[in-house]
Amino acid sequence: MSGELVTGLAGEAETVVTETHTAGHLGSGDVRVLAFPMMILFMEITARKLLAAFLPAGRTSFDSRVNG
Fold this sequence. Notes:
Structural class: mainly alpha
Order of helices and strands: HH
Oligomer: single chain
Number of helices: 2
Radius of gyration: 15 Å
Largest sheet: none
């Protein structure tokens, strides 16, 4: 563990959106845009990586709600 986990912690990641990330590919729409489920997945991955530095070895985190 390093540092203190505080409210407002921020991080960012970049992803190149490919056809496999689109709503059309996932069957959740007909438009070639980033699918909502993929957006949530990318957010979860980013948050998990950010929090990893603050959690003891062998621990992880999970979400329970998404506010839009």
